[in-house]
Amino acid sequence: MNVRNRTRYLVRATFLYGNFDNSNVYPKFDLSLGATPWTTVVVDDATTPVVQEAIILAAAPTLSVCLSNASTGQPFISTLELRQFNGSLYYTTDEKQFFLRLSARINFGAESNASVRYPDDPFDRIWESDLVRRANYLVDVAPGTQRISTTKPIFVSTNEQPPQRVMQTAVVGKDGSLTYRIDLEDFPGNAWAVSYFAEIEDLAPNQTRKFKLVIPGKPDFSKPTVDVEENAQGKYRLYEPGYTNVPLPFVFSFGFKKTNDSSEGPILNAMEIYKYVQIAMGSQDANIMASLVSRYPQADWAQEGGDPCLPASWSWVQCSSEAAPRIFSITLSGKNITGSIPVELTKLSGLVELKLDGNSFSGQIPDFTGCRDLQYIHLENNQLTGALPPSMGELPNLKEL
């Protein structure tokens, strides 16, 4: 996908199996963002879509998504969406080293099971209703939890800018507390976690709403007191506290408890939790190979895209097994390639084997002295001209030419 360099994007992949292959075998396969493992897609229902989202800072003019390593069924994808963020939305200090993988984006107090997204959310984030139920997700709800809503406008033009429609609903703890437990997919890990609050009840002058975050086993999280109206500098205004880098477990229990001097129970409008995913270095030859395949935009063999080695090698490439792989073998025999031998091949310093036979390459053989590990070069059945370059005799490991 074409992107703008140094711009933040939401990437959303959706998978709706629907028994497209008539096998009734639910697929399970890996999903990667560029060279970085994103998650494992596990389909357990033919009619329920699996949705995966990530937020990443584009580091190049293109962004690739790869499906690989199927353990059951066939890898497939239904939709792939890209949404550009403006300004500082979801900025993190480590965004060049990590992307954010969505674990939860919840609209509390929702009036139906329907999600909220565009046009209510100009960035087309999907805010899932807290009425949607699934195993081990939004369970252990405190007694006295009630749903409230308003039709009054909410000021949301700060921070991550959640949509007004999401902030116009909330849950409140009429008995003094709100509690929830959710399983966070792919955790434990470090998280970007934010709660969204807005006071949407018209409290009397003698009424107050003050509360603290409560996470079992983590007393330090209970120190700050939330007074939404005071923190947001008024009613019907967004207040967005959170933790930009906090360790969270797979089974995450949390709650909000009113303080002793508060007349009203806590309120919660929305929440987002993302996991930090370290961006893989990728293969050392990725830029060279991107330049190589760009020479042949119409060739079938040049369409595989992404990193040539990670998460899986291109079909005509073999790579080393190190963390930042090198390409050691290229086989482009009989691909009907014309023109001169591309200079990019001479820059692959880890190359051991090069097979270009059975094409229509013309011109002279280039200088391969930068490929000191080359052992096997196959150039037969082409239309090459000129003498064999003296540099071939300087390759210390050459066995076949």
UniProtKB/TrEMBL annotation:
Its main location: membrane. It comes from the Eukaryota. One of its GO terms (cellular component) is membrane. It is a single-pass membrane protein. InterPro entries: Leu-rich_rpt, LRR_dom_sf, Malectin-like_Carb-bd_dom. Residues 2-275 form the Malectin-like domain. It is found in: Membrane. This is Malectin-like domain-containing protein. It comes from Oryza brachyantha.
